[in-house]
Amino acid sequence: MRIATYNVEWFNTLFDTTDHLLMDDGWSGRQDVTRAQQIEALGIVFTAMDADAVMVIEAPDQNSKRCAVTALENFAAAFGLRTRKAVIGFANDTQQEIALLYDPDVLSVQHDPQGPETGKKGAGDAPRFDGVFRIDLDIDATEDMVRFSKPPLELAVTTQSGAALRLIGVHLKSKAPHGARSRDEVMRLSIANRRKQLAQAIWLRQRIESHLTAGDSLIVLGDLNDGPGLDEYENLFGRSSVEIVMGEEGPLGLYDPHARRALGARLGATATTSRFFLPKQKRYLQALLDYVMVSEDLRSRTPRWRIWHPFDDVDCWSVPALREALLMASDHFPVTLDLDL
Fold first, then answer.
1. Strand pairing class (97-102; 53-59)
2. Range of the structural domain that residue 116 is part of
3. What is the pTM of this model?
4. Nearest-CA neighbor of 206 among 135, 256, 298, 294?
């Protein structure tokens, strides 16, 4: 079985108000890329992956007038993908949903949120992800109220053979310091936003531990937008959100080989899953942001990870159409996990 995570940059801009693809020469949300070019590139990438399930990060918008499920299923139909059914969880207001595209002939999937509802009062013990998490962020003896801007997607999954597993799709992101007018304000807002992201990671970690303690087979996948050596605030807090979410190796830990390797590296090379252009420096920045983390029981089932990087993966590089499609489709590259279930 192949399970993937793929952050598709501004997928939402590729659909009209009726959730149909805009296959035209208008600009997409990507720099100097038309909607038709990005759509065709995504079709090539999704077809090449041939996954049984794809956790789509930055999926099309879900609101009273738009339907992310309809949009994704229309996309799948346009390219004849096996992953022709979609499911989302709690919608957000960022136009970047978290959704799963899957093959209904292989998997049965249900949105299955865990934890108590909190209302505005919040709770400090793994509340439901559309609720409020109470935690003291700055050690001032006063609890802060934390919400997810993009609530993780919790899924109960059953394979055709009857195997049961849990999937949690995530997109943790520390907001940019919007509105800051000085260097001190930039630093203050950046630290506050990073502190909130780490609180969300702690909240997610509580849920992970409850599943692992119960003996559930668990996969946590998506974009954590954080990792070893990513920015100057890491040393200030001691741990990245990646480390918090994974936990220590062992029965209550999760495993992703790229993350573990990066955490152990100082000057050595690490894998990367994204590529961003820096206009002022006229160069590209590459970073490890996307992960597929598995529980110990799944790690024993001969898992095989692959980052579909157009320059680092030999098979991607050797197929020019796929190489160009990966560069055109998004500023992130897919990560797949092949697993015997």
1. antiparallel
2. 2-338
3. 0.93
4. 135
